[in-house]
Design a protein that fits this description.
Layout: H1 2-25, H2 30-39, H3 43-46, E1 51-57, E2 59-75, E3 78-81, E4 87-92, E5 99-100, E6 105-109, H4 112-147, H5 153-185, E7 188-190, E8 195-197, E9 207-208, E10 218-221, E11 226-233, H6 237-246, E12 250-254, E13 261-270, E14 280-287, E15 299-316, E16 328-333, E17 336-341, E18 343-348, E19 351-356, E20 363-365, E21 378-383
Parallel strand pairs: 1-21
Antiparallel strand pairs: 1-20, 2-11, 2-15, 3-10, 4-6, 4-9, 5-8, 6-7, 8-10, 11-14, 12-13, 12-15, 13-14, 15-19, 16-17, 18-19
Length: 414
């Protein structure tokens, strides 16, 4: 008895499943068709209605071959300004962050000790120059006497030696004077390059010491022009080198990948080795940065334009769908959706470059609805957002065919 009941239960379940499957396979009609027409759902699944779509023509146009990378802005020339002589810092002649020109005086150190050294060296030089003049005059008087043997040779050589010794002393004092004057010039610290100053590490009134140890007085970074350092995968190395050999490579800089271009420059450097840990190579672009849009240390998005492909086949990004066998699109043909596998070469903003699968001129469904599948009936709304293609403005009328043309390309008369 129990077996009979179980068989009846299984039979009932199977009948319900088979009935549901049979109902699902039938064309939509009656109340179900009206509901689908009102809601717009389920028409593509049950085959009872067409799917309204807009299309775009696959066209060929110039498209750049680009490499997108993240870069870091760095100064082309950076100098840490340090004192070259010791003393009290008397004055700071600029404000932190000010732009400065090469040769502009930035700091003044108390110059009184250096001035005294200069005066001392100048006085010693004057003293020895006077002694040299006297020794040279003595040498001039004794030379003819020694030639006539009126005096001994030893007396003349003593006078000659004294003259040469004083001449060497004068030269040494002259060098000491130049050294003192050089130390005095270090009391005024000028900007070695043009750029923008950073923060001050020492304020006026403090004692500073010559040397490379400790913090610099200030750091100057050149801003115009400026460099952008980029790390790109090593697979692009051959393409970059080939494009660089043919001419200048333009680089567009923006704040991030979704922002507009803020500056443009050109590639100026390719590193001589690939980073083995990351598999990337460093490239650098120089940007004029006339309005100082870029700042050292800033992270930016960069686009390297290797070349421009004049005959690239492009589609909107929304028309290309991912699949198990790769990317594909739907082509509108005979008012039906035809699935076509394609190969994507690259994407630039919201446009996709197709390298394989289309030849150009195909009418491709632009925005693919979820209900669309291969061989689905279509209600074509328009091409590229222009006027409707269908005879009734895209509401199910017959599609207008283009007028026939004769061999000369003119419209043929009916």
């Amino acid at each position: 008895m129990k077996r009979l009941i179980m068989l009846l239960v299984f039979a009932g379940i199977a009948a319900v499943l088979l009935g549901g499957y049979w109902y699902w396979q039938q064309p939509a009609g009656g109340a179900g068709e009206k509901t689908a027409a009102k809601t717009g759902k389920g028409a593509g699944k049950r085959g009872g209605g067409s799917v309204t779509v807009s299309t775009v023509i696959a066209k060929r146009q110039p498209m750049p071959v680009v490499i997108d990378a993240v870069g870091t802005v760095e100064s082309e020339h950076s100098v840490a300004v340090r004192p070259q002589t010791s003393g009290v810092l008397e004055a700071v002649l600029f404000k932190e962050g000010d732009p400065v020109k090469q040769g502009q005086v930035l700091f003044r150190i108390d110059a009184r000790p250096m001035t005294a050294s200069v005066e001392q060296a100048r006085a010693a030089l004057a003293r020895d120059q006077a002694q040299l003049a006297q020794a040279q005059a003595q040498d001039a008087r004794l030379r003819p006497l020694a030639e006539k043997d009126y005096i001994t040779r030893n007396e003349y050589e003593v006078a000659l030696t004294q003259s040469k010794s004083l001449q060497a002393t004068v030269e040494a004092n002259r060098a000491a004077l130049q050294q003192s004057q050089l130390q005095l010039s270090y009391a005024s610290i000028a900007a070695p390059i043009s750029g923008r100053t950073g923060s001050l590490s020492v304020k006026s009134g403090n004692l500073v010491s010559a040397g490379t140890g400790g913090l610099p007085l200030v750091v100057i970074n050149s801003i115009q022009p400026i460099l952008v350092s980029l790390s790109v995968p090593q697979r692009y190395l051959d393409a970059v080198r080939h494009a660089w050999a043919e001419g200048a490579i333009k680089v567009s800089i923006s704040a991030d990948a979704k922002s507009s271009t803020v500056a443009e420059g050109s590639l100026v450097f390719i590193d001589n080795s690939v980073n083995q840990q990351t598999g990337t190579i460093v490239l650098k672009a120089r940007v004029k940065n006339e309005r100082e849009q870029l700042w050292p240390g800033q992270f930016v998005a960069a686009r390297i334009v290797l070349k421009v492909e004049q005959d690239a086949l492009v589609l909107p990004e929304s028309a290309v769908q991912p699949g198990q066998d790769g990317s594909f699109v739907y082509i509108a043909k005979d008012r039906r959706a035809r699935l076509q596998n394609v190969q994507v070469d690259r994407q630039i903003d919201d446009m996709v470059v197709i390298s394989k699968g289309l030849s150009g001129g195909e009418e491709v469904i632009k925005d693919v609805p979820p209900a669309l599948s291969n061989n689905s009936p279509l209600n074509l709304k328009g091409v590229d957002g222009k006027a409707g293609i269908d005879g009734d403005g895209g509401k199910g009328g017959k599609r207008k065919e283009p007028p026939a043309k004769d061999a000369a390309g003119k419209e043929a008369k009916p």
